[in-house]
Amino acid sequence: MPKVGLTTTVPVEVIYAAGWVPVDLNNLFITGENPQALVEEAELAGYPRNLCAWIKGIYSTVLKQRDISTVIAVTQGDCSNTHALMETLQLAGVEIVPFAFPYDRDADLLRLQIEKMMCHFDVSWRQVDEAKERLNRVRGKVWELDRLTWQENRVSGWENHLYQVSCSDFNGDPDKFAADTDMLLEEVRSRPPVEKALRLGYIGVPPIVGDLYQYLEERGARVVFNETQRQFTMPYAAAGLVEQYRRYTYPYGVFFRLADISREAARRNLDGIIHYAQSFCFRQIEDLIIREKLDLPLLTLEGDKPNRLDARTRMRLDVFLDMLR
Predict the structure, then answer these.
(1) Residues 6 or more apart from 137 whose CB is under 8 A from it?
(2) GO molecular-function annotation terms (predicted)?
């Protein structure tokens, strides 16, 4: 089956309905053997040093994956640098399919975008709705994993992150992903619950550093809410595909996201929140709004390149956790 790369989450039901295999390029980049080398390859090709490492990593990843000749690029609702990424990939011979989430969550505009994608992949609404029903059964398993994280304290923050972030493409095989999730669910249900750990929320884009969750748990804190990763699971039981992607908060304004964050922070009884901001990302500006609107202790972390936590960041985390205690 042909593969199509994704720069972020899109209505993946359309792709599966067409018999293609979606590949989340972010996940492929960050789980590669040497993500930092991919960033440096993009810089050697001419990408500026002061640009988001995710964009550079995606660029090099696509060029290395010769079986990915088509990329769906989200031109509104994600990274503002995606336009130039599209153009440089197009220059390299990659077919680009643009997709835009309307800023105001307009249902008609969103339906138009979805139907343009359906036209490109030559699928009907009946096929897409069948794919939605199939994928929602898989998502339901990950919703249960999330519930076991915050309600029964049996799932680690890293596991919660990994399985939720993988719902952007279901690792290219929903049936295998569902079976893997079932195995983890069976295992965690027999674990003793974690007790007396600080309860943290993680908001912002998924981290580019690899050991954040492990470091927090070594120091007696757990992430029981991963904001953006949870959104990739489409956690609301919406009746139709358009409404499902209208309720998906990540591509829209920060105030819509904040309503979801505040609701989940209260429901999950969080002690504090870590706001992760990627270097050179426009979302760093939103930190000032988040700080003003959220009524919880908040630590802002900035990550640049794929790596482990540096000494300064570890020290800031230690101080934050001490303050929460």
Answers:
(1) 178
(2) hydro-lyase activity; iron-sulfur cluster binding
Beta bridge partners of 252: none
pLDDT at position 144: 98
Question: What six digits make up the tokens of 167?
Answer: 């719902």
Token output for 69: 């000749």
**pLDDT at residue 76, as a whole number:** 87
Q: Are 193 and 118 in contact (CB under 8 A)?
A: no
What tens digit of pLDDT does each residue of 64-77 get? 998 999 999 999 88
Rounded to an integer, what distance in angstroms lies between the CA atom of residue 39 and that of residue 55? 8
CA–CA dist 132, 12 (Å, integer) = 9
**Cβ contacts of residue 179 below 8 Å, gap of 6+?**
none
Contacting residues for 260 by C-beta, under 8 A, at least 6 apart: 227, 231, 249
CA distance 71 to 86: 8
**Over 90: is that where the pLDDT of 237 sits?**
no
Question: Across the chain, where does the E strand assignment appear?
Answer: 3-6, 21-24, 68-76, 95-100, 198-204, 221-226, 272-278, 298-303
Average pLDDT, the chain: 95
Please report the pLDDT score of residue 239 as a whole number.
86
What does the alpha-carbon distance between residue 263 and residue 249 come to, in Å, rounded to a whole number?
13
CB 225 within 8 A of CB 51: no
Rounded to whole angstroms, how far apart are CA atoms 156 and 137? 23
Q: For residue 285, what are the contacts with CB-CB under 8 A and spacing of at least 6? A: none
> What is the three-state SS of 180-235?
HHHHHHHHHHCCCCCCCCEEEEEEECCCCECCHHHHHHHCCEEEEEEHHHHHCCCC
Are residues 94 and 62 in contact, defined by beta-carbon separation less than 8 angstroms? yes
Could you read off the pLDDT of 191-232 as tens digits, one per residue? 999 988 999 999 999 999 889 999 999 999 999 999 999 999
311/106 Cα distance (integer angstroms): 45
Provide the β-strand partners of residue 303: 278
Question: Is the model's pTM score more than 0.85?
Answer: yes
**Could you give the CA distance from residue 47 to residue 22 in angstroms, rounded to a whole number?**
26
pLDDT value at 259 more than 90: yes
